[in-house]
Amino acid sequence: MKTLRSKGFLPELRIEGAGAPELANLPAILRVLLIQDGTVTKTLEAWFWEFMAVALREQSVTVWQSGPDLGFPLEANSRVLLRKVDIQGQSSGRVYCSATSHILISKLPDGLGERLLSGEIGIGELLRDRELETYRELKSVFWVPGSPDSSGSLGRSYLIHLGHTPVMRIEEHFPLAMYLPATA
Q: Would you identify the CATH topology of the domain 20-179?
């Protein structure tokens, strides 16, 4: 995915996963959400013209001993925040995105970890409010087939770097049905 650092259009880019749709055939907003390096919440607000709320589903801090590769170096006994949220419309209640984050708390600037732990604000908004220079490194774009009552979802995973150091791994899922034109 390094090629997406300087380009937003790559005709050869493919979505990972059996039965995945072609990127070119997706609604334009989904293409934007899957490859952008900005704040998802603000993009959703502009597209759906509705304030978005970050609804905290789960949050815990663990002392890292071992586990799945998060894509950034972890020392033994590092404190890692696991956070699961839904980004939903404040008026409609619709869930436009679900996200799971792993955050290396010890590498965050003073006060940032505490604000994340309070659950009061989304990661992108918090980084913007603190005026922190960040870089989002897209790692994958993938397809999750739906169940019989769901059309599936498109997802992406990426790292957020602060000062050239990766400190967060985020995986987002966008339910396809939210982005398709309504049918009568």
A: Chorismate lyase (3.40.1410)
